[in-house]
Design brief:
CATH architecture of the largest domain: Sandwich
Distance between the termini: 11 Å
CATH superfamily of the largest domain: Immunoglobulins
Number of domains: 5
Structural class: mainly beta
Helix content: under 10%
Largest sheet: 9 strands, mixed
Strand content: over 45%
Shape: flat
Number of strands: 43
CATH topology of the largest domain: Immunoglobulin-like
CATH class of the largest domain: Mainly Beta
Length: 576
């Protein structure tokens, strides 16, 4: 009798605190059906599915809390359980909950997985789980991508690159000539890389191994051999890639990718002996530059790099042919590599061909209001080429643009706009002397209130709890295509969206954010919302907001009180 009284006291305490008012509870089901692999490997994360059942059928309106534990001589830090060992069924679960890769045991042995009701532990499921060590015959293969077997390495270092699809997020160790020289970890795809110093010239051997948390060998590569020759010179330019090829149509965009030795920090293209635009250093040993072919003809390419403090020009006898626009014309992909090293030397000729390349051009232009009443607008544009200055001309007559603004960026704010009138805008690239240099934009017509106008003034971000879920909410903005959500764990008064990570997007005016109810202390994150207008412009809504992400203010007290009541129930059961 006393046992039943305590059981009901605890039952109603949980109901009262967690707001469970409708649905089926533990006393109305026969038990739980737990679907989980019966045999696991150490550290293997697997799915677990828990269903509340009665008469062999899933009870779709089940709403109650369950405890999940593993018995059999294992400590809490050697097992990972869904929800940390508890889960409260929600109406959306429909009596069945799948925990994807939420169950892991880190010690070999035989154990009992127990899932039981918080109200009555006689309503439970017990499953025997066997966890095995990974044996030698289960060792996964690791592929070494770089260096190549029987290859030759030049210089003092080598990039070790490897992969094993069976070993994601796994520590790996690199052994050079039998000695451990580096450690790293594979990513979610099983890929990894590390730079290793080469101290021994001549023959070397390389082997890579992977180990689990208990230092058991779980992965191994074949042993490869390579030679180190420090006397051989690595060419400054390894490869040139021309996209879409060496034959293109007029008005085509041409992209040149230059792959170099790792220590090359500066590279330029020489176009028809005239222009020398700098290439963008997009990665170690890789440069890129794009330009527009304006006229039919030929473009001769050379390259200049700074090699160990000395300016060197390489004539690769590379010519791009630009044809008039025709149908059926296709280009070819042209690639040089270090095997064509004889092409990387040569005299710089003085022949000057007809210049057919114009590096500067204005691409997409976006105009949007920067105020609610339309009296201020924001203009931004794409800069194709090397222009550092731009002239923004505008006015009320298409043929007479009387107002001019010169800026050194690709955006400008224009004030004192009459929202009732139609304006015309023109963007022109300039050189350092503020002389036009390149192709201007088309003349753009703008009228406030058009279908592309995006208005986001006076909109604030708030947080709201809806059906036990936490949301960021805001008022809908006019003519918005979608909203982008950005997040950061740290922020200060200078933090902008550019400093944050994009975590999602939505067409709704709310976005669910994660909330850790089990956090040991108060946690916060910083969120910002960016509206993407139908015209393409992106405008931040409100400010960067500091949002509490755990725990609920009184949740700790609730958990402690609930745990105390449950402990009393357990103690009474033992003594009964």
């Amino acid at each position: 009798m006393k046992k039943k009284i305590l059981s009901f006291i605890f039952y109603f305490v949980v109901i009262g605190f967690f707001g469970i008012t409708n649905g089926v509870f533990a006393t109305d089901i026969d038990g739980f059906l737990v679907t989980v692999p019966k045999t696991l490997s150490v550290n293997e994360a697997v799915d677990m599915e828990i269903s509340a059942v009665k008469d062999g059928n899933v009870v779709s309106d089940y709403k109650d809390m369950v405890f999940i534990r593993v018995d059999g001589g294992i400590s809490g830090d050697q097992v990972i359980l869904p929800g940390g060992g508890t889960y409260n069924f929600e109406p959306t679960d429909q009596g069945k909950k799948l925990f994807s890769k939420g169950f892991k045991i880190m010690k070999a042995g035989t154990y009992t997985l127990v899932v039981e009701s918080i109200i009555d532990d006689s309503i439970n499921s017990q499953t025997t789980i066997v966890v095995k060590d990974k044996k030698t015959n289960e060792i996964k293969n690791i592929d070494i991508i770089s260096p190549t077997n029987d290859g030759v390495e030049l210089g003092d270092t080598v990039d070790i690159i490897g992969s094993s699809i069976d070993l994601p997020n796994t520590p790996v160790q690199i052994f050079l000539n039998g000695q451990k020289v580096a450690s790293t970890e594979s990513d979610t795809n099983g890929d990894f890389s590390s730079k290793v110093s080469l101290s021994k010239t001549g023959d070397n051997n390389l082997e890579i191994k992977a180990f689990d948390i208990n230092n058991n060998l779980i992965g191994k590569s074949a042993r490869i051999h390579f030679k180190v020759d420090k006397n051989k010179t690595i060419p400054a330019i390894k490869e040139v890639i021309i996209d879409p090829g060496t034959t293109v149509e007029k008005a085509s965009k041409i992209t040149i990718t230059l792959k170099t030795r790792d220590d090359i920090k500066d590279a330029k293209i020489i176009l028809n002996e005239k222009k020398r635009p700098s290439m963008d250093n997009i990665a170690v040993g890789e440069f890129k530059k794009s330009f527009l072919a304006q006229k039919a003809g030929k473009i001769k390419l050379k390259f200049m790099v700074i090699d160990k403090g000395e300016e060197k020009i390489f004539d690769k006898n590379t010519v791009i042919t630009v044809n008039e626009v025709t149908t059926g014309l296709t280009g070819t992909h042209d690639s040089f590599n270090e095997k064509n090293n004889d092409l990387l030397t040569g005299e710089v000729t003085k022949k000057t061909e007809e210049e057919i390349v114009n590096l500067n051009r204005i691409g997409d232009v976006i105009i949007n209001p920067d105020s609610v009443d339309g009296s201020k607008i924001n203009i931004s544009w794409e800069n194709i080429g090397d222009a550092k200055k731009f002239k923004v001309s505008y006015g009320l007559e298409k043929t007479t643009l009387k107002q001019n603004i010169i800026v050194d960026s690709t955006k400008v704010n224009v004030e004192k706009i009459d929202p009732k009138l139609t304006y015309f805008f023109l963007i022109t690239p300039l050189n350092d002397e503020e002389v036009p240099d390149g192709n201007p934009s088309n003349i753009i017509e703008y009228t406030f209130g058009g279908s592309n106008t995006c208005t986001v003034g006076n909109i604030h971000i708030t947080t709201k709890r809806i059906e036990n879920k936490n949301y960021l909410t805001w008022t809908a903005a006019k003519h918005v295509e979608k909203y982008e959500i950005y997040r950061s764990d740290t922020a200060d008064s200078k933090t902008t969206i550019a400093d944050m990570d994009k975590i999602g997007e939505t067409k709704d005016t709310k976005f669910e954010y994660p909330f850790d109810i089990n956090a040991p202390e108060e946690k916060y994150a910083y969120y910002a919302i960016q509206a993407v207008c139908k015209g393409g412009q992106k405008i931040q809504i409100g400010n960067v907001e500091k949002v509490k992400t755990g725990p609920i203010d009184n949740l700790i007290a609730i958990i402690v009180f609930s745990a105390l009541m449950f402990s009393m129930y357990k103690l009474y059961k033992i003594s009964a």
